[in-house]
């Protein structure tokens, strides 16, 4: 296989190009993705994902859709939390899905190759939508949030764990340097390429800050339920409820 040579800065401005980048980037990252996420988070990633699922409402038999599911961590937790429900894990990178399917032991869980900007589920069919490190990777974030609203039932819950972007440059710039250096180190160590995982810092340049992200969800009919920051505010868990309008 040819060495991964794409640069994220060449693909951020056009949704189709970012989708192309994401598909190939995560195909490259897939074999060592679990090792990388745990190492980059100093082994806190699993506890953050557990907190995400713990923050969800007690619904007896929900339909849960986990977007950009990767190798399936959150989807497996959802299947365990809601044994009478149905869970669908969606991702565009087939190598990620292959690992998730190999790990899957739950009858109420399936993994599907789908784009979060064009989710193939009926309107108002899902009770819960989740995503870990999903929103930042959306090729077209407003469109993805619109899709999340479309498939959620009125009163449904959306919960996301992602990197949190501060508004002030005095906080943003040091964080960018830290992420570029730390995540890029793991890209070099695991893949021989700084771009793999080091691209996290660059991707945040096109991601809304905390206030703007909440405003985007509000514009799409979501009300905030709760939020919690981790890792000195580098990551954040956000929970929203879709309005009945």
Topology:
Elements: H1 15-29, H2 33-40, H3 45-54, E1 63-67, H4 73-81, E2 86-91, H5 94-103, E3 109-113, E4 126-132, H6 141-151, E5 152-163, H7 169-191, H8 195-203, H9 210-219, E6 222-230, E7 235-242
Parallel strand pairs: 1-2, 1-4, 2-3, 4-5
Antiparallel strand pairs: 5-7, 6-7
Query: Treating each run of at least 4 consecutive H or I residues as one helix, how many helices?
Result: 9
Count of the separate structural domains: 1
Biggest sheet, open or closed, and with what strands and sense?
Answer: 7 strands, mixed
The helical percent reads: 40-55%
- Give the number of DSSP strands: 7
CATH architecture: 3-Layer(aba) Sandwich
Mean pLDDT: 95
β content, as a range?
15-25%
CATH class: Alpha Beta
CATH topology: Rossmann fold
CATH superfamily: Vaccinia Virus protein VP39
Low-confidence stretches: none
Q: SSE order in H/E notation?
A: HHHEHEHEEHEHHHEE
Walk across the major sheet and give the strand order: 3-2-1-4-5-7-6
Query: Structural class of the helices, strands and pairings?
Result: alpha/beta
Integer-rounded radius of gyration: 17 Å
- Tertiary shape: globular
